[in-house]
Amino acid sequence: MSPKYIKGSLLATLMLVALGWGWQTLHAPGRFALKDVRVLGNKFTDVGKLRKDLGLDQAVNLLTLSPQHLRARLLTYPWVREARVERIFPGMLVIELEEKTPLCMTKVGEHLYLVDRRGERIKPLEAGDPMPLPVVSVDYAPESEKPLLIRWLIDRMQRNEWLYNRLSEAVGLPGGRWVLYTRKGVKLLHSARMEEELGRLAILQERYSILNRSIRQIDLRVSGQVVVKPQT
Length: 232
Known about the structure:
CATH superfamily of the largest domain: Cell division protein FtsQ/DivIB
Structural class: alpha/beta
Oligomer: single chain
Strand order of the largest sheet: 7-8-9-10-11-12
């Protein structure tokens, strides 16, 4: 074995030892210790629970944290639609969340679920969740179509915030028909021409505050007409 070969092998061994020592040193708990976790954009996500679930409530080296892995974990949280995770050396972790916004509820079996603007279920309703929100039912439709129908109604209600803020329940029926109930118990009957009918209802509300009166039902299904039934 030549001296040149021995010298090369020794040098390679020393380099491996140095690299191993360097890796262990950099990843030691005392190095780049995580000192500050900042969570941005959270309205519904519990930061304390998040820190505990992700192991950020204990001594940890910032180098050992994978932003990609943490993001994947965060996307399993019911409220989180998107997440961005950034390490800022020597000791800060920044988590930026884009959360889902509940706009209504829907019933599945015996349970109520919060629903976002896409018509998709967020999570089962629990104590402490946002309330009150209108309950939207489209029981007649196949499961695959329900989010589209709920999203369609949410879009119309958001364009008519004056009614959305009064809405207690909405029931979808075949043929594009809807029955809406206000929090004061007024029943609104709509055909598939809901947008036109909401325009007529908005005029009546602006001129006569019709939804504030002692009315049991307003039927808007006949074009150009409004049939009102008072409380008995």
